[in-house]
From TrEMBL:
Organism, scientific name: Marinomonas algarum
NCBIfam families, alphabetized: PA_CoA_Oxy1
Gene: paaA
Species lineage: Bacteria, Pseudomonadati, Pseudomonadota, Gammaproteobacteria, Oceanospirillales
Name of the molecule in the record: 1,2-phenylacetyl-CoA epoxidase subunit A
Keywords tagged on the record: Oxidoreductase
GO biological process annotation, one example: phenylacetate catabolic process
InterPro entries xrefs: Aromatic_CoA_ox/epox, Ferritin-like, Ferritin-like_SF, PaaA, PaaA_PaaC
Length: 328
């Protein structure tokens, strides 16, 4: 796969012979599966790639709280409300681990958050879609967290130590989120009214394609994959993970008794995978360029939360400084 990406990737990758001594030692360390740690030498472009990916990932976690926050006050029971609040809190925690991992690379948290708030940083396309009914909370947990897990399990073995270690806890928690989402849907399908069952199908219809887009552009249009695979930041290509997600998810869909809005979805005996229809990449590109259904709403909510929380950050800093003085 790596050789194929070197051929199809947009940039030509250096061979070991073309590298200087420091870079060669770095690549050999990666090839030997030894983690890169914060204080080790690393090429500037490796550092930049990681800061880009980890900051985008952190932003996704905290923007990802917003579509769910929409349903806290309208959860159908106290139990569902508590579960949803716990999930949203977990996501805030994931953002914190990831921003901390990013800081070990020398990035400044305030600067990166400012890039998010001024529209200069990306975050996952999926969070620019609305959550219109209660079944969306189930479908987000099942499909969005489900896709996130498929993408993030291999990141537990990513070459940069602090990122890999942060992913271990994130994956455990995402697993719980995926199950609680699926349980919401299963409950609605088995015990709900006809209208509630229709809500489940409607949520799946709206979120299926956006969930597949979470894995990023197809391999031949993914400018970063070849180098990220060579550095073992990414362990699998976007298309490999997308296929893995579909193969895992369709049997679960069948247990629910629902369908996905893809007439071309079909089990392929020869490949041992599901074939699926064409993804609307125009839609994906529009969303990541800031023109999805909820991009403006999400960024406004983030900016307001940041401004309204300024006093909390100031108080926390003042408290930490006071404590430090008392110790000195
Ligand atoms: N949305 O060369 P490519 C979660 C961008 S789950 C927006 O393939 P790369 C959560 C990409 O950044 C979601 N942008 O890039 C779950 C690049 O742009 P730049 C977060 C996307 O980095 C539940 C360009 O397209 N997960 O947080 O090699 C509840 C070309 O793409 C998307 C992660 O972030 C997208 N879907 O591969 C709450 C996982 N896809 O930067 C929260 C870590 C691609 O060159 N990240 N782009 O301008 C990754 O694994 C990789 O960054 C990706 C993309 C597979 C996403």
């Amino acid at each position: 796969m790596y050789a194929q990406l070197v051929e199809t990737g947009t940039k030509k990758l250096k061979t070991l012979d073309e590298m200087g001594p420091e870079e060669r030692a770095f690549q050999e360390r990666i090839d030997a599966e030894i983690k890169i740690e914060a204080k080790n030498w690393m090429p500037d472009s490796y550092r930049k790639t990681l800061i880009r990916q980890i900051s985008q990932h952190a932003h996704s976690e905290i923007v990802g709280m917003l579509p769910e926050g929409n349903w806290v006050t309208r959860a159908p029971t106290l139990k569902r409300k508590l579960q949803l609040m716990a999930k949203i809190q977990d996501e805030a925690g994931h953002g914190l681990y990831l921003y901390s991992a990013m800081e070990t690379l020398g990035a400044d948290r305030d600067e990166e958050i400012d890039k998010l708030h001024t529209g200069r940083a990306k975050y996952s396309s999926i969070f620019n879609y609305p959550t219109l009914n209660w079944a969306d909370m189930g479908a987000v947990g099942w499909l969005v967290d489900g896709a996130a897990i498929v993408n993030q399990v291999p990141l537990q073995r990513t070459s940069y130590g602090p990122y890999a270690r942060a992913m271990i806890r994130v994956c455990k928690e995402e697993s719980f989120h995926q199950r609680q989402g699926y349980e919401i849907l299963l409950h609605m399908m088995r015990h709900g009214t006809e209208a509630q069952q229709e809500m489940v199908q409607d949520a799946i219809n709206r979120l299926w394609w956006p969930a597949l887009m979470m894995f990023g552009p197809s391999d031949e249009h993914s400018p970063n994959s070849a180098q990220s695979m060579a550095w073992k930041i990414k362990r699998h290509t976007n298309d490999e993970l997308r296929q893995r997600f579909i193969d895992q998810t369709i049997p679960q869909l069948e247990v629910l008794g629902c369908t996905v809005p893809d007439p071309d979805l079909k089990w392929n005996e020869e490949t041992g995978h599901y074939d699926f229809g064409e993804i609307q990449w125009d839609e994906f590109n529009r969303v990541i360029q800031g023109h999805g259904p909820c991009n403006t709403e999400r960024l406004n909510a983030r900016r307001n939360a940041h401004e309204n929380g300024a006093w909390v950050r100031a108080a926390a800093v003042a408290h930490a400084e006071k404590k430090q003085k008392a110790v000195a």
